[in-house]
Amino acid sequence: MRKIMIAAALAVTSAVAIPVIAQMPTTAPGAKDPSRVKAGTYTVDSAHTQVLFEVNHLGFNDYFGLFGNATGTLKLDPANPAAASVAIEIPIAKVATNSDGLTKHLLGPDFFDAAKFPTATFKSTNITVDGNDAKITGDLTIKGVTKQVVLDAEFEGAGVGPMNKKDTVGFEAETKIRRSDFGISYGIPMVPDQVELKISVAFEREG
């Protein structure tokens, strides 16, 4: 009897799963084709956006950490890409490392002081486009201090998301900052001042 019930359950599961699988796209819905980009206002797809930071570990190796749950908007017109603007907000409390002790330390006053400064922000002030690449100049605010930085960005893909059917675009960007510029000097020079930031972001078009 039990075998019959298991077989029946598997049959029902297969009957449900097969039509779903059949509806899945057979190729990636996004492609590195600028002609796919549509004008409009886009919002950050928080589930598929990450900000990675890299700093040297005491001269031994490079160490990585991650910020998630970013929010923000992108205003974009492919007919005039230089007129685009982007604003991103990053919740400091969402920092993640593979050390609970380090993560807790990063949230404290020696580093980000998340209780007092819960968010970091970036707001573009100028964008220069060259094919699929762009230099995005903007104001980066960390721990209440604002400095101008330049992101080296690259268009990664555009298309329609298979689940929500929203027009989606993706970019990657990177820059280097000195953490001391933002009042984060703990451990310098044993832990280097320079931090490399790498951003992978997806935006979904509103409407």
From TrEMBL:
SUPFAM superfamilies: YceI-like. The keyword Disulfide bond does not apply. The keyword Signal applies. Residues 1-22 form the signal peptide. Residues 41-204 form the Lipid/polyisoprenoid-binding YceI-like domain. It holds the Pfam family YceI. InterPro entries: Lipid/polyisoprenoid-bd_YceI, TTHA0802/YceI-like_sf. Keywords: Signal. This is Protein YceI. It comes from Edaphosphingomonas haloaromaticamans.
